[in-house]
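Bumping with the actual sequence this time:
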Amino acid sequence: MTIRTRHRRTATTAAVAVATALTALTALTTAGTAQAAPERSTAPGFLSARELPPHPFSPWYEGEVARGLPEFPVFCLEEALPAKGAWHRQFHTEYDTGAVQVTVRTAGVGAARRLAAEAKASVRDCAADFRERYPGASARWKDYGRVDVEEGAHVYGVHTAPPESEYGIHLFGVGRDGRTVTVVAWGQMGTFEHAPVKDFRETTRTAVDKLYR
């Protein structure tokens, strides 16, 4: 195999990874929303489409609140979120921008603290893991700080740039109220300058505030 061929294959693999991450946020598939019949009487409170950062050219569309994890693992959190006690809702626009909220009701406050800490660490490590997994790619992350709501929330951004492929920008909000942890992930093609950080911080605040509504 020549160096050029190997580089092309590496670039293609990284491109597929970013495309898969964006697809996971934008795909509202039948399988994803019909994983299990939602029990609205016991589900935590979830965001609605109107509570996401406004898109300049499209409304947001929301799926049903459903038990378990989404069909596609949440980018940067593939191994951090347990299926037990989980609920999710997916959102999409008419463009490449998508979002997903996953909420996990744990056995107790201690377990919730550990899960929130693990989710935050997973996001912070995501850029380095991406660079290691896809040689030739670049990735960076930013800490957008704490959001004061209930037991607290935190917002991060992750930018991925596979070689010879589209850039991806992702925002993550991780928060906790008692024994319940919620994660909101937003993504589209672009760079940090395209991230609606101010609006997403408000989305994260709302997501945590609604957990026990």
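The tokens above came from a reply further down the thread. Residues 1-20, 26-40 have pLDDT under 50 and may be disordered.
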